[in-house]
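Run log, item B.
One chain of 389 residues. Sequence copied directly from the ordering sheet:
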Amino acid sequence: MRFRHPDGSTVHLAYCTNVHPAETLDGVLAQLRDHCEPVRRRLGRDRLGIGLWLAKDAAHALVTDPSALRKLRTELDRRGLEVVTLNGFPYEGFGAEEVKYRVYKPDWADPERLDHTTALARVLAGLLPDDVTDGTISTLPLAWRTVYDEERAETARTALGTLGERLDAIEELTGRSIRVGLEPEPGCVVETTRDAIAPLTAIGHDRIGICVDTCHLATSFEDPHIAFDDLTEARVPVVKSQLSAALHAEHPHLPEVREALAAFAEPRFLHQTRTPTAAGLRATDDLDEALAGHALPDASPWRAHFHVPLHAAPAAPLASTLPVLKSALTRLVGGPAPLTRHLEVETYTWQALPPELRPRSRTQLAEGIAAELTLARDLLTDLGLKELP
């Protein structure tokens, strides 16, 4: 979906396909048929943007076989789909029964991460629509915090510098500009937008910036206005933003609130949980840890890294952080010029929701994704953007 900003530029809205597990190119092609095109049809649009997640094997097939890349591009066109952004965070196995800490491997100190991201950039340059010259990729925020020392930090900085040089070369060869954004996430070396400033300034390459995920922003209790003021002052580019909402519990000391939260503690994904205290944020790596005994203080609200559907907040006594998303979106595209032109709805946890909230068919999933995109579209038009055909 495309929108005209009042300044005349085009803002792209997509939804991320990491909600549909696929590890191979054949799996990606099946996604387009079984999920992405049905969402487009449900929205009544001739064209729909998707943020492709390409696992290691799919990316390798596309970057080593020009005919495979042409086939994917042809299939996108045939199904009324377009790609201007990729999710390069998960490397492989995102559809496994248990993902948890595995999603942070390989990190930016491992050569596989540089090779994979380079492959994604080359693929994206070949997938961009004919009238679009700029593409974006979101990536791991350096590493999970517990395996990161100064030696690995220096290796990661060098790798990202090399990536910047390769992105320069891609534009020189193809005329397509690809940028990559570190995506701050709770528990990682770069946990907040402020954490991103120092490493990105040290790298010092204008093709390497930040991807702001509004669920992660909210989980860390960041104020969007302060966050974007800091990024603007530091001249850190917002490469893209993922529109998502976290799980919010206003009164976590109440038994009924804990019972409601327990329904979201599931074995597949990590649900980092945070609460503000006078001494700063207190944290657990997962929601079940927070609920066990006194691992987390409960005098203040809790927020958990659980991407809840944008249009359907959980039932009371829980809530979502959709207000944080709205506030962030106001800063991202509500000003005289957009801070970013690539927006991506990223609710990958549909099948991790409590059983009674999960979609029971492809049709129900398509309806839910379409409802999220409709909400995002309405927020954009309320900010003065005009939806384009």
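Observations after the first pass:
- The radius of gyration is 20 Å.
- The mean pLDDT is 97.
Flagged for discussion on Thursday.
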